[in-house]
Amino acid sequence: MNNSPFISVITPTFNAAQTLIACIESVASQTYPYFEHWIIDGLSTDNTMEIVKEYASKYTHLKYVSEKDTGIYNAMNKGISLSKGDWLYFLGADDRLYGNSVLSDIFEKSINEDIGVIVGDIIINFANHTHSYKSTKFDKYFFAGESIYHQAILMSKKVFEVAGNFDESYKICADTKMEYEAFRFGFQYLYVDIIIASYSGTGISSDSKYIDLTRNERVRIIQHIFETCTNNEKKILADNSKKFIKIWLSEVLSYGLGFYSIYKSLVQTDKNLKKAFKRIFYNKNFWLANSSESGAFTNLQKGSILIGLLQVFFLCIKEKRFFYYLKNSIYWLKVRFFT
């Protein structure tokens, strides 16, 4: 009797014709025999579905549905419902499995019953360079400040049966929330020293246009974690959140967006978070390292005036150009209030 787990690879698509063939072929080339590949299409208007149908006629493991959806997590949830796999893997249409033995290498040994998440490594392809990402250090508290790329993760179907599907109220970070839920509901994580996928670093979660939305969703996740943890865990979580707070503040300094809304929703969540925030906010070296001319003037024009003035102060200390920053600060405040 065969006890090898069945794997479902799920790929949401919308107008993905330019990259989809490489994705499909990377799955089709797997030496592991027990898998299916679901294409969940959102009524593409290019020739995505022509490609899918052509390859589905060649590969019996390739299945598809094309119908209106409400976003990527709605498509991923459809894939969960349609899939027959013991393990699920979500592969972007512009990503591909790294080699033809990825699934065989992962499942060559039996996986313990208490394992709910398998985590490996990925190669990230940015516009001008590639970067290897290793996911070796994580625990329940990890997700208060960081996340694991979903292309590096396979999840047991049992996780979704216990924790529910992806939260569709999130547009970018529902996979991070699900990663935490797996821990919260008692599933174990297993790290495998295998490169699972080659991942495109140009997707929506990497788009600078969505920085503010991503940041707000990360805050929601941190709030959710604090709501579902014990009092003894909150200090550890606050320490882990420092990395996120530092990134968020540096983005506020650079882009001039979202200071007060994030401060109110994040820092007022817990007294330990407030302490973590203060340790960063009142650190002179942080301001000296992260203040920029463009960020300061953007904040003065349309962001937080307080943040903008603090940046100007530290830029004057660092660059010794007092009259330059005074003149331009007055200019951008006039733009803000009189135009």
UniProtKB/TrEMBL annotation:
<dbReference type="GO" id="GO:0016758">
    <property type="term" value="F:hexosyltransferase activity"/>
</dbReference>
<dbReference type="InterPro" id="IPR029044">
    <property type="entry name" value="Nucleotide-diphossugar_trans"/>
</dbReference>
<feature type="domain" description="Glycosyltransferase 2-like">
    <location>
        <begin position="8"/>
        <end position="143"/>
    </location>
</feature>
<protein>
    <submittedName>
        <fullName>Glycosyltransferase involved in cell wall bisynthesis</fullName>
    </submittedName>
</protein>
<keyword id="KW-0808">Transferase</keyword>
<dbReference type="Pfam" id="PF00535">
    <property type="entry name" value="Glycos_transf_2"/>
</dbReference>
<dbReference type="InterPro" id="IPR001173">
    <property type="entry name" value="Glyco_trans_2-like"/>
</dbReference>
